[in-house]
Amino acid sequence: MSGNVLGERELIRRISEILGGVENDDCAVIDAGERYLVATTDMLHRKTDFPDIMNPWQMGWMAVAVNLSDIAAMGAEPAGVLIAAGLPPEADLYFIDELFSGFGDCAAYYGTRIIGGDTDAHQELTITGTALGFVEKDLVLRRRGARAGDLLCTTGALGGAGGGLWAWQNEVESEFITRLLEPEPRLKEGQALAKSRAVTAMMDNSDGLALSLFDLAEVSRVGFVVREEALPVADCLAKMVGQEKALEMAMSAGGDFELVFTVRPGELEAARRACRLTVIGEVVEEGIWMERGGERRRVEAKGYEHRIGGVD
Amino acid sequence: MSGNVLGERELIRRISEILGGVENDDCAVIDAGERYLVATTDMLHRKTDFPDIMNPWQMGWMAVAVNLSDIAAMGAEPAGVLIAAGLPPEADLYFIDELFSGFGDCAAYYGTRIIGGDTDAHQELTITGTALGFVEKDLVLRRRGARAGDLLCTTGALGGAGGGLWAWQNEVESEFITRLLEPEPRLKEGQALAKSRAVTAMMDNSDGLALSLFDLAEVSRVGFVVREEALPVADCLAKMVGQEKALEMAMSAGGDFELVFTVRPGELEAARRACRLTVIGEVVEEGIWMERGGERRRVEAKGYEHRIGGVD
């Protein structure tokens, strides 16, 4: 097997076996008495996660935002964020001040704060954020729970962050770049959807809609049909990259941090009262399908996935 | 100021200002209804934190143990551990299996488990553990609370991990090496001491006793006298490194993960019923002092501190 590498999802399966089962959700869920405590952690580092154009404030914002998005996906209210920061030798005081202001500003924007952390010297800038939240026990939303016949929905628009990456790589000026660098997780929407009691399963689409659908499908043991014409492709994205590329970005590009969720068919109005959403398809028995002009084709898992570890 | 670097404690003060105050405790404390939730995070990486002789199982054990020690220091019961692991290209399946077994075994040894995490590809092995715990609100122990006249105490023996580092560096075979590589945080002792209600302030001594005393002194606005002859220097350490060096290790070497705490003078018996402890001195109005043969001399802050960030 020399030269092989493990994909992130395969690695997670292996680790889950070693550790005796880790729930496949955006957050871990712990009994905290009256409510559930939800907790999530995410390691970001310079080379893989921070594009060159990102300023240190944005790096700080991003490190907190990606974790809060996982709190949002559980329908939880954030209760605090911990930050472990490995700072490289070239990090000067300006960099440090901006980075930590980014942490604090993102937390404050979502009504929470940085409650603790750890600093360390590191060769490469490495930031691990951990977000904590609480949710009423009967409101918590998980990846499992979707049932055939449920409606498939998303918050916001899709493909904007992908457009930002494209614009940056092609040296085009575009507002999408800000969307890529300063994501806005859907905390309010997540909580409101949980309270609506109309949602059967939820996760965020941080690795792209397609991968999220594969994850939801696996855990809920269902499939999905996505109606292409229903996808809320980000405004003006098609103008910049063309119609086909825009659709591909809406389907597969990571970084949007929207919520993908399923709604009981009779309760769509309750979900709509909770937040702005778009119905993009429905839950079926098996497979991930894209429907265009009445025709269905299978969707391959496509999206952002780190490759990890050499296999000897 | 070119060429200067910030010490970890100075950096933490600066960050605390930016973030509007972060409590100086082993864990962050969050209201979770009937109890407090305590949470801590620690980033470890190959070069700084994992000696060459460490095997991957020990790296995993260590990453969990350092965090559980912070839970112990609050008098809390662990409720779960999150692990973010940045794995280098040379990490093969054996390495990954052993590393994650180390995480899981340490958590299980202390009656908790790995509840979630994140994996990432990284140039240098980097592990951020986050430990969560719960504690009754009226039992939580903090760094502040020590008052002049209280007795200064420690669990276990001191200097063993320092002896392990010395033995490794000097290529001497010694059981101290295991103590360095497989630390055993004092979870039971921490909880029992909290329940005894005899303790006024507590923290772990992960960076060495001297640095812990400086931290406790700053937060509690007190001083300490340590009676040198009372220090529970690890058995046989003096035989290996000599009497003076052994005392220095007991006072300043990091890695022991014992609990340092202060006890109301009338309640020493209650504390003794909670766990084995040694009274090593007492709380005074100001200064950190070492007493030998009736004479007192001031102790300088000496211990393990990462240097972080260039200042331009």
Number of helices of chain A: 11
Could you describe the largest sheet of chain A, including whether it forms a barrel? 7 strands, mixed
The CATH class assignment of the largest domain in chain A is Alpha Beta
The radius of gyration over CA of chain A amounts to: 19 Å
* Oligomeric description of these chains: homodimer
SSE run of chain A: EHEEHHEHEEEHHHEHEHHEHEEEE
Helix content of chain A: 25-40%
Q: Report the count of strand segments of chain A.
A: 14
The CATH fourth-level homologous superfamily of the largest domain in chain A:
PurM-like C-terminal domain
**Overall pLDDT metric of chain A:** 92
- The number of domains of chain A is 2
Report the portion of residues of chain A in β strands: 25-35%
The poorly predicted ranges of chain A are 304-312
Query: Which architecture of the largest domain in chain A per CATH?
Result: Alpha-Beta Complex
- Please state how the strands of the largest beta sheet of chain A are arranged side by side: 8-10-7-11-9-12-13
